[in-house]
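mind reviewing this fold:
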Amino acid sequence: MKLKERYDVIIAGTGPAGAGAARALKGSGLETLAVERSKLPRYKMCSGIVFPSSRKIIEQDFGKIPPNVMCEPVITKGNRVFITNDTPMIDVPFSAFDEGDGLEEEGFNTWRADLDLWLMNQSDAEIADQCSFESFRREDGEYLVELGYQGIRSLARTRYLIGADGTLSRVRRSIFPEFNKKINKLPNYEEIHTGSIDLEPGWLYLFMDRSVTGYFATVFHKDDKIVVVTGVNEKESVKNYFKAFKSHLEQNHGLKSDSVQSRHGIVLTDMSARKNYCLGVDNVLLAGEAGGFLRGGEGITSSLVSGKAAGEAVLESVKKKRPAIKYFRELAADELQKCEHIHASLSAIMGYNVFMRP
């Protein structure tokens, strides 16, 4: 595929935030390019569990999730939480913190790579994978965007730029190079095992004990695989905590690993927990975790909502000829309140915010 010299909108990132923005722009006549630095479908370290709020949004805005995107068990019943390693497991329904009208009680279990690509394909955006956003500058009332496309440097002009490129967003860094000094990072590490464990499939298991995590640790099933994850504060060793968590699972929950299929890492931030949002400026907007949108530990819903708000803000800007950031702030306000409400509710239950554990 050959990139054009000019687009109306360029979206960096093809996760739920990028897909939400692209879907909102569908049929508008605006020529839209979505760029993804990896080859699609690309692996995303995430449970892939579509919470009831996400189910509702996806079904309303994108349609029914196709069967090939799902993995077994298809239905996720809710959360099972171990507050400490010595206290009994507690069943916590999604409704305890995923509030809203007309929501189903259960979530769906999906492969994130396939879900993200399917969501993105429900738009009419041009999609370029193996195409990295590098930087941009303002020029003649537009943005000149530098892209690395299949190893070659390319330049494209655009009227609007949407950063939907995750926690360590390059778009955000290009606008606000000092912003990352204001956030704390939370490294997370996962291993995907074949084998067995004495935890019933169909639940998202959360482990909060400080001996196995500095954030929270999780276990969930995907087809015949067991996914084990833990996270820590920036100055702690995620590998050491993971070793302790895996040992706990072996000794107390019967984990028997036949093989490790893959290992992955990701970095989260405490932006949402500290209300430290970064929405953009002028006609450059930041959606999803690039802007700090996160509902506690669940990101798909907030990414979809904020991405849609970014797309709709662009449409309002075109129509009224004012900067898109004005409309984005208005359209995203309810979602920011939802993020804050969920963080406050979880903190009240736990006695601390998991993003800022002592």
